[in-house]
Amino acid sequence: MPLSREAAHYLFGVMRLGQGAELSVFNGADGEWDARVAEAGKKGGTLEPLAQSVPQWLPPDLWLMFAPVKKARTDFIVEKAVEMGVRRLLPVATDFTNSERIRQDRLQAHAREAAEQCGAVFVPEVAELSKLSAVLADWPDARRLMFCDEAAAGSSSALAGVFAEAEGPGPWAVLIGPEGGFSEAERTRLYGLPQAHVATLGPRILRAETAAVAALTLWQTRFGDWA
Amino acid sequence: MPLSREAAHYLFGVMRLGQGAELSVFNGADGEWDARVAEAGKKGGTLEPLAQSVPQWLPPDLWLMFAPVKKARTDFIVEKAVEMGVRRLLPVATDFTNSERIRQDRLQAHAREAAEQCGAVFVPEVAELSKLSAVLADWPDARRLMFCDEAAAGSSSALAGVFAEAEGPGPWAVLIGPEGGFSEAERTRLYGLPQAHVATLGPRILRAETAAVAALTLWQTRFGDWA
């Protein structure tokens, strides 16, 4: 297994591993493997796979859509999504999103680190920032969408929509609104989307990263691999 | 309404409010009020209450017990507990807890700030750090305990215990284990406690703060004020 220059730098330059050292590796497709350093160089090297220690698994076919917030809290959303088990992360700019940019490469690297930290063998793809209106205009027929409407907080119908109407597994997405809530235009569009199911997350206003974990918990328990 | 020296310093020294300025205040017992600065001094002052803007509410009679982790993540647990709605926070030292100390005053201040941030009118008490074994030895008869057992992760029985056995409202506590899991002695004690119900939080290992939000979501949806 040849190593990229970046991986060789990390393993031999930063971590100071030498020939014969053993480590755990995963590539997102073949589970986790015990491996041994066969060759260690400044610009490359090779690993010898020994035995698979964790079989490959995939999280459910679930996307998490979220409006970027402040840097540390956006990082947190990415980290939590990896732990909770999502297949893909879609940052979306909404009418009330303050932060108009993301560093996709940084968030992708953060997702990989989060997977390493929590022993996951799968790293969700982090998409580039898209406009929510554009994503909804082109929404796939077969993918259901659970959106969390802050304006419905205070009502006592937690997840009434999702639980009453939605059925079985299949492709899903969970959409967490921006901290300022959705605009009226967005709300109209969402409530009009046949694939959409509204969820409310209790009587208190939650921060975006809290709402992400709470919504993913409800989804995983009801439709995902926690069931 | 007379102000403490600390509050006067914050309002008049830091925030630079003057006589006649209007603000929102809460004391944890009377909801949120619009108020006006009647007198502003260096060491004190008074506020004149105008009208109640939010009635007082209490979260359900739920304690969150957690083993302190690194500072930023412990702060996060406190913040999330306030958003999710708990009545009391109990930091507990377990056999595998690394951090043997907490700054109770700092965590209590953090809980107050979190309440201000999320518009809550209630601030949970943060207790001093206790030994988990001592807390369990003296566990109240009427308070049920949902504990999250990492060792049961990977099994597919998410919350089976809690959902199947437990009934209705009443006093509860949710216990999040330390990142290294419970010791065998603790696990034996917990499984032997008649008030205890085991919950599992999906097939992936969650960090403590993620587990706290996920467990509180399940509890609130099943037994609390999200139902």
TrEMBL record, chains A, B:
Residue ranges of every copy of the Ribosomal RNA small subunit methyltransferase E methyltransferase domain listed in the record: 60-220
Localization, UniProt: Cytoplasm
Known EC number: 2.1.1.193
A biological process term (GO) from this entry: rRNA base methylation
Keywords: Cytoplasm, Methyltransferase, rRNA processing, S-adenosyl-L-methionine, Transferase
UniProt-recorded name of the protein: Ribosomal RNA small subunit methyltransferase E
Free-text function comment from the UniProt entry: Specifically methylates the N3 position of the uracil ring of uridine 1498 (m3U1498) in 16S rRNA. Acts on the fully assembled 30S ribosomal subunit.
PANTHER family according to UniProt: 16S RRNA (URACIL(1498)-N(3))-METHYLTRANSFERASE (PTHR30027:SF3), RIBOSOMAL RNA SMALL SUBUNIT METHYLTRANSFERASE E (PTHR30027)
Alphabetized InterPro entries for the sequence: Alpha/beta_knot_MTases, PUA-like_sf, RsmE, RsmE_MTase_dom, RsmE_PUA-like, tRNA_m1G_MTases_N
Catalytic activity: uridine(1498) in 16S rRNA + S-adenosyl-L-methionine = N(3)-methyluridine(1498) in 16S rRNA + S-adenosyl-L-homocysteine + H(+)
Superkingdom field: Bacteria
Family according to the record: Belongs to the RNA methyltransferase RsmE family.
GO molecular function: rRNA (uridine-N3-)-methyltransferase activity
Organism: Roseivivax sediminis
